[in-house]
Amino acid sequence: MKNGNRSVMKFLQSDPRALSLLTLPAVLLFITFVAFPIVSGINISFTNWNGYSQEYSYVGFDNYRKMFTDPQVWTAFRNTLIYGFGSTLVQTILGLAFAMLLVNRFLFRGVARTIIYLPAMVAQLIIGYIWYFIVTYERGALNDIVALFGVDKVDWMSRGFRAVMIIMMINAIAYCGKTMIIFIAGLESIPNMYNEAASIDGANAWQVFRHITMPMLLPALTTSLVLNIIGGLKMFGLVVAMTNGGPGYASHSLSSLINSLYFGGQQAGYSAAVGMFSFIFIVLVSILLRRYLEMKEAQYNG
Amino acid sequence: MRRILVLFFTCIFMLSSVFAGGAKEDQTSAEGGLSGTLTVATNAASPTYDAVEHIVELFMEENPGVEVEYTTYGSDYENLMKARMAANDLPDVFATHGWAVNRYAEYLRPLNDLELSKRISPSIVDTVTTDSGDIVAMPITSEQSGMIYNKEILAKAGWDHVPATLDEFYQCCEDVKALGVIPVYITGKDTRNQANLMDIMAVSFLITCNDSGDNADRLYDGTFDWSKWAPVSTFLSELVKRGYTNVDATTADPIYTAEKLAFGEAMFNYNNQAAIADAWTLNPDAELSMMPVPGLHEDDEQIWIGGERECYGIWKDSPNMELAIALLEFMARPENVKYVCEVAGMPSGFADVSPELRLTPDFEAFSDLKTYPYFDREWLPSGMWATMRTIGGALTAGEMSIEESCKTMQDSYLSLMAQQ
Amino acid sequence: MVDKKKKSKLKTRWNWLKSIIAIVISLFFFAPFYIILSLSFKSRADRTSYWLFPENPTFDAYAYALDKGDIWLAICNTLIVTVFSVVLVLVLGSIAAYPLARHKTRMNKLILSAFVGVMMVPPLSVLVPIYRELVMMGGINTFWGIILVTVTYSLPTSVFMFTNFIGGIPKELDEAALIDGCSQFMIFPRIILPNMAPVISSVLILTGVSIWNDYSFQLYVLQRPKLRTITLAISSFFSEGNTNMPAAAAATVISVLPLAIIYLCLQKYFVKGSMDSAVK
Question: pLDDT of C23-49, one tens digit each?
């Protein structure tokens, strides 16, 4: 018995595997509130459950089959791609530009940093409602500006694709502050002597940017890309607040569609199937993305 | 190190106190009388919510041992209730917002044994009665709807009566449009508005018109020919095509309805009396009223659409059954019903209560017309509301043809009939 | 000498230009907040352009929002949920991250990728199963219920950032400590933790903000009016049937204000924290 105790002690003291015990609380939470619900979601996706009754029956792969011919799902899928990748692109460009502008000290730098970051601190649903007041037709703030130029009022969100692009841009504007902060950090971590050395060597601004700044920013870029793309692909609040998925179903993201199928309709089973599809898709994207970025980083470092 | 440990244990201690705090629930019982805690949930907004809250407070005054938690969840209510039904964990008393029979019946306690069930107004008792004859909910207020309209604009457009047929309605829209007023105000950001429009018009177009044939029977038994739905979809898309709706019909938020009605910028709107009451809080002089649904043809009858409005049922597994019944009986007292109806501006759900409402004289002018239930509640399987929202949104946006909309309705109808 | 002077003059001018650009950008980004602010001071019947500040500002909307929304209680509840969740996220996240960053066994890699996978689960798609579980556990309408769920869904981001950061701390430090006779469980509090201040502050703010703003979990778990959090209180002003726009705007301002103040106070640390964790 004593012997057993001692070997346990020894295991704890020196075997590196024992350290993994530290992950236990997190893993337990994970199993309870993530793994279990997901398994239950997979189960639901094979039923015709209406979302509230105690009765339902299994329908095999019907929900998955239906998904592939449902224009709602494909529109939402396309939009999700735009929300994910489009807004990440805009966010990265804006974030990088703001970071370059605001990295060095000058008057109003602090104010600008604060205000650009402000929207990222507000709940997405609320950001959505605020912007709704701007782009709405009736007394919309944007239309008031348009009117100053003598142009007729525009119902901005009435065309599906235009609504999608506007939501994408608003997402980018709301969260480019986060990207900016990450890039400022990256820029500050570049030792100044690199830039100076390069400019003494006669490199012009673009060359310095291309050959020194960019490679050094790569880790910052990796982090921000992963976070932004996942954030964009999961977008929900903005869509709900700005268009509620409309006109028709033209601006739904996968998340908002899942929500409206589950709660708006009585198609919990189908909604769960779409949910599984979107989950698998986002996981795939993130795996590919990380692989690619790790490769790139290795290239630069090697 | 030590500091960290101290910090850690302090946190654990504080957490455990929070954890313990959540579970405590005092069950002090007053001498005699009722005691305990009752949860009541609704989706009502003010003024209806305020009115019922007042009644709940009176109930607590009369029964000092009782604590009633009355909450509104607004537009989140339906989602929340679905999750709670799925977990079979419902509030003791809850609002059924038109879904007492189709959605909540499985979870409601029949009220037939209570005296109040005999007083429910005969015109709406059917809407809260299941096929097996159980009355499952108690309507405090009821609804008598058609279209909201503005009397002043109607007169300005040169009309001395409300449009009684579809053709007259279109003509009236044309005349109103010429005045520079929006004929039909649609708030399509929330597609419930279009679904509501079709839900009302479908009764007139498919059920009560003279050439409806056996539509009703075929809808019940699942053999309905869905190409006959076309007039309903056509009506909505015609309104848009002819420019009878607001420009932003697909994107307007319902938050704007009140001001459009209050300031005479919109003529017709599909909503219940509560929207009128709300507009009056902005402009008490607005000459708003409610008109019946026009008939499809010349000799078809005009009709009212009605049903329960603020309506409460008791969860069948409620651990506080005695309290819940007491609350319902208290709410059903004529003076309390009258109070709620008058504050909310809605007709009563009880036969023996007639509130004094600003709209009452207007309703009396049409007292000989018949009242029918909403189309989806009576003639469609549960779940079609979502489909109507989908096609309503798509038709307003011009993204769907009439044929496609009929096809979508048919597919959804067949699959829901099969589910039953 | 002359060259240097010229250069610094050029620099001052460039800095002025930068200030002007910064102001223009700030104005653009502040516009939405200005609109909500001016709307919150209007009366319900005021239908002037959103750009115009009301001539007679009124506090009616604020009075209404505070009265109806029970905002103070909501702020207290939100604070309780946020503080406890953030502390748990920091503790559980950092101790889990240490072995994951240091020992890349197959098991640990699997755990890490499962965690990162959670970042991608749209919470809505698992809401109903989670709700059922909580009902069975008696966690509905309790703070511990919402805290456990919130912690679970905030942990992945923190584990992701902590492992990145710990990976950047030289392993030689651990080894030196081991040789000095430090037990392996003591390495983390003695060697690693003191170096983690920057990443802790950034995780604190990131998860703090997202928990403060969380909506869906709180809606389902905290149903009793006494337990309502701030986002739930505001959302009631945007519900169907409500047409009081100024009140909705006022509620929004009230909800954003505490965060904005905290952010202004902590700004310096925050920028620094985000930097270190994101880049390393």
Answer: 999 999 999 999 999 999 998 888 888
Q: For chain B, what is the domain count?
A: 2
- Residue whose token pair is 């809407």: B127
Q: Which of A154, A263, A271 to mutate to test the interface with B (most CBs of B within 10 A)?
A: A263
Average pLDDT over chain A, rounded to whole?
85
The answer to whether A271 touches A50, Cβ cutoff 8 Å, is no
Q: Write out chain C residues lying below 8 Å of A20, CB-based.
A: 99, 103, 105, 107-108, 111
Q: Give a yes or no: residue C41 inside a domain.
A: yes
Residues of A in contact with B188 (CB under 8 A): 246-247
Q: What is the pLDDT of residues A139-193, one digit of tens each?
A: 888 998 888 888 888 888 888 899 999 999 999 999 999 889 888 878 887 777 7
> C50 and A38 in contact by Cβ < 8 A?
no
Tell me: do C147 and C264 sit in the same domain.
Answer: yes
Question: Is B84 exposed, middle or buried (CB count within 10 Å of its CB: 0-12, 13-18, 19+)?
Answer: buried
Of the partner residues A36, A116, A125, the one whose CB lies closest to the CB of residue C133: A36
Would you call A288 an interface residue with chain C, using a CB distance cutoff of 8 Å? no
CA–CA separation, B97 vs B78, rounded Å? Answer: 9
Prediction pTM value: 0.86
**CA-to-CA distance for C189 and C177, rounded, in angstroms?**
12
Q: Is B221 in the same domain as B179?
A: yes
* C64 in any annotated domain: no
B121 with B233, same domain: the answer is no
Q: Which amino acid would we find at residue A26?
A: A
pLDDT of residue B420: 67
Note whether ipTM > 0.85 here.
no
Q: Which residue of C has its CA nearest to A233?
A: C120
Residue bearing tokens 């030590």: B2
A120 lies within 8 A of chain C by CB = yes
Determine the topology of domain A66-301 in CATH.
MetI-like fold (1.10.3720)
Whether C269 contacts chain B with CB within 8 A: no
Q: Which of A2-16, A285-299, C32-46, C243-257 has the highest mean pLDDT?
A: C32-46
Please list every residue in chain A whose beta carbon sits closer than 8 Å to the beta carbon of residue C15.
Answer: 106-107
CATH 1.10.3720.10 region(s) of chain A? 66-301
- Looking at the fold, whether C91 and C42 belong to one and the same domain comes out as no
C-alpha distance from residue A207 to each of A97, A202, A221, C117 (Å)? 17, 10, 19, 38
What CATH number did the domain enclosing B92 receive? 3.40.190.10
Q: Please give the average per-residue pLDDT across A194-216, as a whole number.
A: 78
CATH number at residue C101: 1.10.3720.10
Cis peptide bond prior to A247, omega within 30° of 0: yes
Q: Which residue's entry shows tokens 């698998």?
A: A280
> Is residue B303 within 8 Å of B370, Cβ to Cβ?
yes
Q: Is residue C53 part of a domain?
A: yes
Under an 8 A CB cutoff, do C50 and A12 touch?
no
**Closest-CA distance of chain A to residue B196, Å:** 14
Kindly tell me the sign of the dihedral angle through the C-alpha atoms of C177, C183, C189, C193. positive
Rg (CA), chain C: 24
Evaluate whether C193 touches C94 at the Cβ level (below 8 Å). Answer: yes
Contact across the interface for C238 and B75, Cβ inside 8 Å: yes
- For residue B238 the two structure tokens come to 């015609």
Residues B283 and B295 occupy one common structural domain? yes
Q: Which domain holds residue B116?
A: 34-141+309-361
